[in-house]
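Support request from a user on the community tier.

User writes: "When I paste my structure tokens into the form, the page sometimes reloads and wipes my input. The last time it worked, I copied everything first. Here is what I submitted, just in case something in the input itself triggers the reload:"
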């Protein structure tokens, strides 16, 4: 069934790495993922429902009951829907305030999808958590998601007294596409003197660039769930343009002019990735002909608010203390490693946590329909421990 689904979806053959904990469970997760995608494709072809809307329906999560330890309310921050989690226990002083941006490739994900993750972070770190429901692609293209996250964060910063939050301990946090948004928001706020300074940024396997889909992690993990190499480019293009046209050219690297690729090589290059992450293989980028027409449709990939890895040093050196979580079996692993180096080169303190048996999306599976993995719980606890240190 899984092989049939991969054929139907035009995906590469899937790969369950031997180093993943509980490989049988991951195969089950993959089967659900592929079956959902295949059924969505069928529904779309019959005109009953778009594949993306069906995927959202399946992923939406179920409503949870009251939490005995948290006060939870749905609000709007500057017209952006948010869910606020506040510990009920009394506090000796003001609490940390965490603005959380969910993952899902800018296309999927909701407040309900990440309900258990946000409750866990709020309870275990005894912090106020604000989960942001930003607008999704392809209906709302870049910079809609970024603007929603920025506006919600600024609103929270200006009204923290209502939530008992310490203005010196405000943190932005996100996973995957949410990590991209957290990095972009952090960069935008770095130079603002009219707002509290961010205490930290937490980036959980973030996607930070769309120049090079041929970094070592992209080839080593191209068929590893939950994020295939082709899907990473698909999501980036959906967010940018609302469609996935020119995906093959983007994957091959013909969407970036040679002079621009040379300019950014100091930051986006396998040369900046530690050797221990190349032992599973490195596939050098084959020179491809630059296609100017494609570049015209994707040139905003070079904007740091879309690809934060491309921000200038003058911005990067102003960034707050950072936590970066990477997974070995993740196409986005090297994005995190490259940003870690950029931050450290600019004097920013970085706490790095690497899940050697982790794969992309593992945090979002925490306590999710029996699909939890020990590595996901370890990763989530590493985030909580970092928060407790602030």
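"...and here is what came back when it finally went through:"
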């Amino acid at each position: 069934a899984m092989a049939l689904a991969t054929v139907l979806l035009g995906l590469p053959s899937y790969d369950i790495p031997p180093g993943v904990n509980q490989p049988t469970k991951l195969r089950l997760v993959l089967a659900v993922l592929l079956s959902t995608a295949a059924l969505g494709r069928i529904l779309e072809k019959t005109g009953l429902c778009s594949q993306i809307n069906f995927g959202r329906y399946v992923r939406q999560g179920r409503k949870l009951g009251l939490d005995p330890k948290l006060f939870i309310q749905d609000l709007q921050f500057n017209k952006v829907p948010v869910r606020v989690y506040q510990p009920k226990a009394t506090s000796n002083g003001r609490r940390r305030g965490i603005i959380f941006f969910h993952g899902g490739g800018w296309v999927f994900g909701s407040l309900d999808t990440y309900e258990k993750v946000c409750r866990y972070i709020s309870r275990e770190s005894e912090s106020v958590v604000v989960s942001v429901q930003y607008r999704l692609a392809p209906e709302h293209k870049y910079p809609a998601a970024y603007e929603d996250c920025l506006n919600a964060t600024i609103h929270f910063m200006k009204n923290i007294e209502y939530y008992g939050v310490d203005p010196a301990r405000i943190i932005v946090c996100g996973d995957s596409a949410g990590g991209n948004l957290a990095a972009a928001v952090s960069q935008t706020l770095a130079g603002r003197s009219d707002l509290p300074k961010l205490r930290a940024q937490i980036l959980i396997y973030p996607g930070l660039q769309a120049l090079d889909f041929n970094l070592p992690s992209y080839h080593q993990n191209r068929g590893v769930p939950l994020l295939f190499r082709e899907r990473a480019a698909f999501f980036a293009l959906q967010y940018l343009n609302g469609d996935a046209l020119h995906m093959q050219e983007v994957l091959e690297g013909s969407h970036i002019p040679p002079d621009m690729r040379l300019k950014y090589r100091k930051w986006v290059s396998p040369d900046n990735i530690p050797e221990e992450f190349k032992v599973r293989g490195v596939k050098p980028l084959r020179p491809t002909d630059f296609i100017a027409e494609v570049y015209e449709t994707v040139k905003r990939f070079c904007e740091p608010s879309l690809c934060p890895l491309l921000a200038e040093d003058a911005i990067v050196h102003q960034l707050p203390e950072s936590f970066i979580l990477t997974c070995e079996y993740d196409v986005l692993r090297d994005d995190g490693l490259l940003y870690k180096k950029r931050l450290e080169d600019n004097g920013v303190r970085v706490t790095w946590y690497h899940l050697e048996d982790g794969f992309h999306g593992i945090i979002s599976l925490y306590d999710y329909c029996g699909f939890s993995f020990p590595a996901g719980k370890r990763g989530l606890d590493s985030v909580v421990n970092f928060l407790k240190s602030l």
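Agent notes: The reload is a front-end session timeout and is unrelated to the input. The first strand starts at residue 70 and ends at 77. DSSP finds 14 helices and eight strands in the chain. Escalated to web team.
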